Amino acid sequence: MSDLFHYQLEALAPLVFRSGKPFGVNAGADGAAFPLPSSLAGLLRSLWAEQQGQAFSPELDQITSYGPLLAWREQDNTLIPLAPAPADAQYVTVQPDKQNGQTNAQQTPKVIIRRRCPQPLPNTMGCDLAAGLLPVWSSEDLEQNPGKPAPGPQYWPLAELVRWSQGENICLDALNANGLITLTDSVRTHVAIAPESQAAADGQLFQTAGLDLAPQRHADGGWATRELVWLASTPKQLASRLATFGGERRLSRLHPLDAHAAPAHWLRPCEDQIANILAQGGLRLTLLTPALFANGHLPGWLSVNPADGSLSGQPLDGSNLRLTLRAVASHGWQAVSGWDLAKQKPRAARKALKAGAVLWFALDNPDQLSAEALRPLLRQLWTRPLSDHSQDQYDGFGLALPAAWTPPSA
Question: Alpha carbon 268 to chain centroid distance?
Fold first, then answer.
């Protein structure tokens, strides 16, 4: 990944990204939305074209963009990358342990993180999943104290997500300390201007909600010592400058990051994990950005095996790497649309699998595959977005974090 340049984007005002909700006089406030990868790709390509003095052309669409990811920026400029919470993690409130059949009144309920795994159901239970797919659930749900769903951080430190993906348990205190519960909205009210009088039109008010990344004020009156920034990567080298990211031409500042200091290990293959994937015979992919698949939550390169009905295929063209899908956990789907500058019309709305979704795959016949041949193929999973269409990959849809996984025995 030495051919990539890394950047941080500092918001100088609350940034507005449309959610796709219909907008009008009576529509109310359009909720603040996390920027799509295509929004960042458009920004980086526009800055590159302006810097090089190039006109708008289809070739600009081929410039690859990775991101955006959130990151904490400390006072010493240290960056802590953040990623969406994985869909196989569940926050639950559990009751205190019971002693002699009675609850200890001195103990209060606590929130824990429960891991949900692909595993077969007991013989007394069933489901209607497609052949070969496993339900993603926790066997603790069947215990006497299953707990109730609870709120928790929506964004995890990337280092904690890596540990979680490798099967380690995560402490909720660590997530609360360096994660992010939710993004802060900043709602502004505007008035419509009557063209004939250039004055406010009676009764025509509307609101916009933006993402406020500035340091927030604590309940005790103090201010946070760190702020949120965006992280981005692209093969093009850009100079430090002001930029308009999002709607209403609100300003941000682009800063190049030193290649050695940039927290871009989320784009660097981990040789230990590659070895573990080969040894365990399976892998899991956690989406860091939304993915666009031809079949909803299923990648288009998967096809039904006539022999047993399982879903398998080759994610990389011209390779002998073949994977079988075993399970999917997701936060649902989100609408992806926008404005087509070339055609000067709105883009058709599509459904994307939300960031944080997890897909589990088994390697087909791992004992018959050459480790030397598979290693360079597996390395591509760290740097190649998983979306089906090449343009969506250039835009950065479907960037994923791979990790080893052991498929359960039949």
Answer: 17
Q: What number is the average pLDDT over the span 321-346? A: 87
Q: Collapsing DSSP states into helix, strand and coil, what is residue 340?
A: strand
For 224-270, the pLDDT digits (tens) are 778 899 999 999 999 999 989 988 788 899 999 876 555 555 566 66
Phi-psi region of 356 (alpha: psi -120 to 50; beta: other; left: phi over 0): left
Nearest of 319, 354, 321, 355 to residue 335 by alpha carbon: 354
Would you call 207 helix, strand, or coil by DSSP? strand
For residue 20, give the DSSP letter: S
SS3 for 355?
coil
Using a 10 angstrom Cβ sphere, with 0-12 exposed, 13-18 middle and 19 or more buried, the burial of residue 36 is buried
Cβ–Cβ < 8 Å for 10, 250: no
> How far, in Å, CA of 146 to CA of 351, rounded?
33
d(CA 170, CA 121): 25
pLDDT tens sequence across 340-352: 777 888 888 899 9
Q: State the CB neighbour count (10 A cutoff) for residue 176.
A: 13
Task: Tell me the H-state helices in 348-388.
Answer: 371-379
In angstroms, the CA 331 to CA 340 distance is 28
CB count in 10 Å sphere of residue 202: 9
Distance CA 220, CA 325 (A): 49
* Helix %, strand %, coil % of the chain (to 5): 20, 35, 45
The pTM of the full predicted model, rounded to 2 decimals, is: 0.88
Question: What are the beta bridge partners of residue 373?
Answer: none
Q: Which tokens belong to 156?
A: 């995890």
Distance CA(78)–CA(261), nearest Å, equals: 9
Determine the Cα angle at 108 with ends 102 and 111, to 5°: 115
Q: Are 346 and 337 in contact (CB under 8 A)?
A: yes
Q: Which two tokens stand for residue 347?
A: 């883009």
Q: Which of 408, 121, 140 is nearest to 284 (CA)?
A: 408
> How does residue 99 score in pLDDT terms, banded at 50, 70 and 90?
very low
Q: Model confidence over 141-190: pLDDT tens digits?
A: 655 567 788 889 999 999 999 999 999 988 898 898 889 988 877 777 77
Alpha-carbon span 315 to 321, nearest angstrom: 7
